[in-house]
Amino acid sequence: MRPDSPASPDQAPPAVRVVLAEDGVLLREGLAGLLGRFGFDVVASVGDADALLAAVAEHEPDLVVTDIRMPPGFTDEGLRAAVRLRGERPGLAVVALSQYVEQSYAADLLDSGGGDRVGYLLKDRVVDVEEFVATLRRVVAGGTVVDPQVVRQLLRRRRDPLSRLSAREREVLALIAEGHSNSAIARALFVSDAAVGKHIGNILAKLDLPPDDDVNRRVLAVLAYLRSRPS
After folding, report:
1. pLDDT in tens, 198-211
2. Is 20:44 a contact under the CB 8 Å cutoff?
3. Beta strand 93-98 with 118-122: parallel, antiparallel or unpaired?
4. Going along the chain, which residue ranges are E strands?
5. Topology (CATH) of 167-228
6. CA distance linking residue 38 with residue 46, whole number of Å
7. 7, 35, 121, 157: which one has the fewest Cβ atoms less than 10 Å from its Cβ?
8. Domain spanning 16-157: which CATH class is it, in words?
């Protein structure tokens, strides 16, 4: 058969070319061996986000399987690299694996490339090897696979943060955003300073703001208010 001849019907399709990124050596080697046994071609196996970016540029794979937390910071380096790769190569299939739902860039990853050829799986919920392999193939074929726990947490995060506030508490927060002091808010709303303080305490609690100095918490509350307003 000439090199440019079409493949015969009996000829197996080419193996999916994979770049694997995982900082744990044992897990990385285990995944590489597993994928190899199921017919994937692991063209590179790396341990950090910079090496992942370089490997994809060199090998131009069909699929990236990456951990989310990798050196040097062990926060979201792998996820950020995945988002960058999808921005540069929207058709690249990417499956992110993690022990946790890392929300900072998860939505960006799932929104990238029109939401096609992307997956986000929690490691401790991957219990069936054949199902995991089928998931990878589904993503490569254009599908989207997201662990239900990831979906639940992202929906919680995207919910209007001010939905739990009363109408009066929204008024108080709007006045805080305009830079008014507690006394000025009390005068504007014809209530006591103590009532304003109570409203502010309720606002901070309902927005789940971390225990910190009051000035910083007020700033965080204002940011939540500004993010929730229509542009």
Report:
1. 999 888 888 877 66
2. yes
3. parallel
4. 17-21, 41-46, 63-67, 93-98, 118-122, 144-146
5. Arc Repressor Mutant, subunit A (1.10.10)
6. 20
7. 7
8. alpha beta
